[in-house]
Design goal:
The protein has helices at about 20-25, 40-60, 70-75, 80-110, 115-120; strands at about 10, 15. It has two domains: about 1-40, no CATH class; about 45-120, no CATH class. With about 120 residues, the chain is mainly alpha-helical. A two-stranded antiparallel sheet has the order 1-2. It is built from five helices and two strands; from the N terminus they run ββααααα.
């Protein structure tokens, strides 16, 4: 069935390429009110904004300043770059938590002594 809605997820080769016969029978070509129309560009943009929001949240947790110019950069960059940023921030967060744990161990050594820490954390020399 010919259709010109290029942004629809079912669009291919200037046609609607529904995945089953029942769907094919209910298609309304060239109309965004088609029951199967789904704008993949809008969905992708929504997902991009969710990833950017997650990056902002992670940076906030890590006390890293989020500058307004990052928004402009993130809106034009490749999605794989965004996922790499999330991956890097997750790794940084894990290191941050490990550092907090080590700080607690050092505080315990200072407050309660090395023998108490060895016993608590089941350490042996």
């Amino acid at each position: 069935m010919n259709c010109n809605l290029e942004k629809c997820q079912w669009f291919a080769f200037n046609q609607c390429c529904g995945d089953n016969e029942e769907m094919y029978e209910s298609i309304v070509p060239n109309r965004t009110n088609c029951p199967h129309y789904k704008d993949i560009h809008t969905e992708a943009e929504k997902a991009r904004l969710e990833v950017i929001s997650e990056i902002k949240n992670m940076m906030n947790v890590l006390n890293i300043e989020y500058k307004p110019e990052y928004d402009e950069h993130f809106m034009i960059c490749d999605v794989s770059y965004l996922f790499k940023c999330v991956e890097d921030l997750c790794e940084t967060y894990q290191l941050h938590k490990q550092n907090e744990n080590l700080e607690q161990v050092l505080k315990d050594v200072e407050d309660k002594g090395i023998e108490w820490v060895r016993e608590k954390y089941n350490l042996s020399c």
